[in-house]
Queue: 3 jobs
Job 1
Amino acid sequence: MTAQLNARGDVAVLVPAAGSGVRLGPGAPKALRLLAGEPLLVHAIRRVAAAPSVRMIVVAAPAAEVEAVRELLAPIAAVTVVAGGKERQDSVAAALAVVPAEVGIVLVHDAARALTPPALVESVAAAVRSGHPAVIPALPVVDTIKEVAPAAAAETVLGTVDRSVLRSVQTPQGFRHEVLAAAHRAIVDAHTDDAGMVERSGTPVVCVPGSESALKITRPLDLVIAEALLAVA
């Protein structure tokens, strides 16, 4: 059954899904790799569509797969599909271009975070709605982090980084529409993180608590972990 998105919602979710996913090994584009028999993108869109504030979802798909992705997602939710670009930021820009100006909050979400709960989508949107121009979900770093000097034979430790001030960032990242649009207009170099683009403009970015379920599926082992999470959900 196709989810009917909230026509009165104030949130657009952009999903750049044109990447190849080299670290997952050879095969289909990353967003179309299977997790428990369904593409990562299907899992991600199903959860995003369940968030009550979401008015529209725009997926930037591989150029050769636009029609296939449109057909794949049609039974799940009313989704706009556009052709993505060579780089992630190109895909985000292509998706952002079709969002009407009256949609005041824009979230950028990775299809690779396929198990992100709808509550996290709502939490990020609520923080933007409360007045923050840019919001990211984040988790405390639990591992000890070392700064090292690269070397041909062995890396030499320069020091131990204070992990209490470090955070591991997730998606969706949320922005006022005009803030994200301005960052994309101003960008002159490559970025893999939209919040990083906004930071460069001097706009403050705040954190909200992330979710352990919103892990990024990057390597084959991540697929195993995600399948285990689905099994106990």
Job 2
Amino acid sequence: MLLPILALIAWTMVMWVWMYATRLPAMQKHNIDPQGAAKPGSLDALPMKVAQVAHNYNHLHEQPTLFYALALAAHVGNWADGVSIYLAWGYVGLRVLHSLVQATVNLVVARFAVFALASLVLMALCAKTILEALGS
């Protein structure tokens, strides 16, 4: 269970690099002083392509926190079997796909479908881990 956790953390760092690789040049182009970014709404002038990447980076700090806690609980409790690990990798793969959709084409219907599927995988992993914990 630790490898999927590490993979999603590594992917989050990839999105962090992507965010700043697009945001900093865009801030320079739009003459936004870095200190000005402290004021809410100051980055609204940035192109949507730049904002999409930043929004996704933020999204990787929302629902995935549940995944980290759940996967660690499954690992520490020794409740993870092969199915759990496949579910964990499935979740990670879907979150990477969600990032790529949001940061590139940002087609909301596709993004929502991937997010919903990832959520269902996370729910399945949660239910399986709870059942394993109750059975041990």
Job 3
Amino acid sequence: MGLVDWLNSMAEFGEWAGGRKPVTKKSDALRFGVLGAAKIAPLALIIPARSHAEIIVVAVAARDKTKAEAYAKRWDVPIVHDSYEALINNPSIDCIYNPLPNGLHYKWTLAALKAGKHVLLEKPSVSNAEEARSLFHHQILGAPNAPVLVEASHYRFHPAWHFFLAQFEKHDIEKASARAGVPKGGIPATDIRFEYDLAGGAAMDLGHYTLSALRGVFGTEPTEVTSATPRLIHAPHDQRCDQAMEATYTFSNGGTGYISADLGARGGYWFPWLTSNWPNFRDLLAWISVTLHPEDLGVESGLQKSSQKVLIFSGFMSPHAYHRIDITTTITLRDPTSGNIVKQEKKTEHKTAYKWTEGMGGEERGQDWWTSYRYQLEEFVNRVKGREGSGAWVDGEESIRQMEATDRTYEKAGMSIRPTSTELE
């Protein structure tokens, strides 16, 4: 069983174990079509849609119709179309979910928008910044009653992410680090994630989350990519694709950032001569740490007193499955002459946020069993229906800046940015 298959089975079990029965659909529910028989679609759309009264998943299309028919039967999708074009042009469909390989995102998203469909677009939005600017600045999105387009960077819709950001001031950040990894063997080298022509690579996959999170905590763009070190997928596979990427960045407040994204994490144990090729599980639960600048608290009993906070958000990528926000405050007393530490005390708070509460600047929203994908669907429907939501969103400019930062990372690594669609407008 592959990683996504396992996640899907866990999602199904979670629905059953939690007693989350399908709700009665409203007469004006949005009708979704799915492009491709993607393994992520049940987790990202089909299962969470069961609990949303205003979403019905009605159709699927894949290049292999037999595969699409089996997929539709498996997930109770009533309509199977012969092609992506047929699904997009079905007048009874309101919205398109696009989880196709990265290199196909631009073409089919633009086709859906031109057909008047709202689009939930899987991350990363497109292959590179040129495509992102073309897509998100397209005239069709500036027209009256324009369709809704959003990049499905789902963790940004979960209340835990916003609760985490509210725990510190962005300009106070000294350094931040975001890490995510899949143990070696979890994703085969033959996976489409490692096909350059389909915009593959670790920086386009897990790297989307780590770079997005890093940019999110600083609230601004890096002024410089100071280093970028790829580990290429091994031969004979496509050497233009990174299996792992590490990179460091400088931000305008002087703070530094680091990311690690690894689709084949290994080693890191004692006796490296023996264990260097063993699967590493350290970053399977993606995490981000933020260290704030020390705060001067003056003098106490002749000693210089300071305070410094370190915040660690474990499980930021899928906070619905598990997460914890640890806030450690260190109080330090130093000898003013020598600078030596005389006394140091640490205190750690543990926090979680599984739904929006009144204390987070708005009304209570959501359920503690909702996944980040379910929260994402809630806001997508709110946008389409013209309703006020939680405020969580990923706008077009954010998606453009994300791809710009990704391109700069590849360039610093001495690699080619992912290829541009021949149908670029």
